[in-house]
Amino acid sequence: EKAGFDHFMLKEIYDQPKAYRDTMGSRIAPDGKRVTLNELTITPEAIRNISRVHIVACGTAFHAGMVGKYVIEKMARIPVETDVASEYRYRSPIITKDTLVIVVSQSGETADTLAALREAKRCGAHVLAITNVVGSSVAREANDIITTWAGPEIAVASTKAYTSQLIGFYLLGLHLAQTLGTQTPEEIAEVIAAMKELPAQVSEILEQAEALKVVAEEMAKHDNLFFIGRGLDYAVALEGSLKLKEISYIHSEAYAAGELKHGTLALIEDDIPVIALATQHELLEKTVSNIKEVKARGAKVLGIAVEGETELQKSVDSTFIIPKTLDVLTPALSVIPLQLLSYYASLARGNDVDKPRNLAKSVTVE
Ligand code: M6R
Asked: Is the separation of the CB atoms in 257 and 305 below 8 Å?
């Protein structure tokens, strides 16, 4: 079942190139110029009437939703709010007929997410689910479904489900943009072309796994560490930090890099590991100055950088390079080294990687 891997998590990390391909699958026109989400029933007219989008999910799926917010706002220019499902209903969200509510759930059985879905439907919203389980409760009750074709995910720590959810959001963002005319045909074709490169680029990253093992073994000696990043890198930092906590039990915090100096910098001391995501071209200079802030306080910084950005390498202690893609697509690559770091840190600490303490794969209580 583990296909020769030591753990399901590792197998599932290596399943990702296929999961990307399968999730894109026939949803891209053969000429590469359009996406074809033929499964959606929402009409172009209803799409034009959407006044706001709510993305609701838990845990890792919520982190995918944070990327989704960025993607939809950038591509379709519709305002998007994100909520963790356990909070959504209790803040009296403004849900109207022209609200598109997107619920994201690998299992499709998460109680809080299901409750949010039901509340959204009760208020007359159109509910679109991004889920990995055909026939799950979420899939059955939503008005529309984008199925992620990641295949069964057994490890409690979500990996390929998260990245397939990202692909789902890219496809949806493009579909909305096509319908609304918010991106030119050239821009759409450019994103699609870059998406097609992602599976091979993930494989390239996986070939460097051994290098991350060494870094993770060093990390595993510490009790605290930080992830920092700006923009999409911040969303990925949150996911990297959750993954590390979940299976290695090492405490970490993810911080928007520019927010450090508003309190958190007080925790930076000699030798503390900081993983700095710096993949967003426009934000690079700003992130580098935040890296200098932690370096000056003795932090040991691992930078996650895009190929060709040599400037960053001068300000960090070590760098992990990911292949070049469009800024908007980087989360689909930058999260892979973070998944591997968590895996190897968990292993180094002798934990049960696939079944971390206190946690269940599917959370069916509110
Ligand atoms: O099945 P779901 O996507 O609804 O699950 C949501 C979370 O419980 C889940 O993503 C959790 O955070 C993962 N174990 C994290 O790796």
From this structure: no
Euclidean distance between CA atoms 198 and 26, whole angstroms: 16
What pLDDT digit, counting tens, does each position of 157-215 carry? 999 999 999 999 999 999 999 999 999 999 999 999 999 999 999 999 999 999 999 99
Q: How far is the CA of 189 from the centre of ligand 1 (A)?
A: 32
Q: Whose CA is nearest to atom 12 of ligand 1?
A: 59
Catalytic, 361? Answer yes
The catalytic residue among 213, 286, 295, 361 is: 361
Instruction: Pick the residue whose CA is nearest to atom 10 on ligand 1.
Output: 60
pLDDT tens-digit profile of 5-26?
999 999 999 999 999 999 999 9
Ligand 1 centroid – CA 134 distance (Å): 17
Which strands, in side-by-side order, build the sheet including 251-256?
Answer: 251-256, 224-229, 273-278, 300-306, 318-322
Asked if the model's pLDDT at residue 336 lies above 90, the reply is: yes
Please name the residue that has the structure tokens 């950088």. 305
Which residues line the pocket of ligand 1, CB cutoff 6 A?
Answer: 58-61, 105-107, 110, 113, 156-158, 242, 246, 362-363
Residue 365 confidence (pLDDT) above 90: no
pLDDT at 310: 83
Contact yes or no for 24/196 (Cβ under 8 A):
yes
pTM value?
0.98
Query: Residue type for 298, please?
Result: G
In the chain, alpha helices (H): 8-14, 16-24, 44-48, 59-76, 85-88, 111-122, 137-141, 160-180, 185-206, 209-219, 232-248, 284-295, 310-315, 331-348
Which residue minimizes the CA distance to atom 14 of ligand 1?
A: 157
Q: How far is the CA of 276 from the centre of ligand 1 (A)?
A: 24
Say if residue 311's pLDDT is above 90. Answer: no
Q: Give me ligand 1 centre to Cα 218, in Å.
A: 27
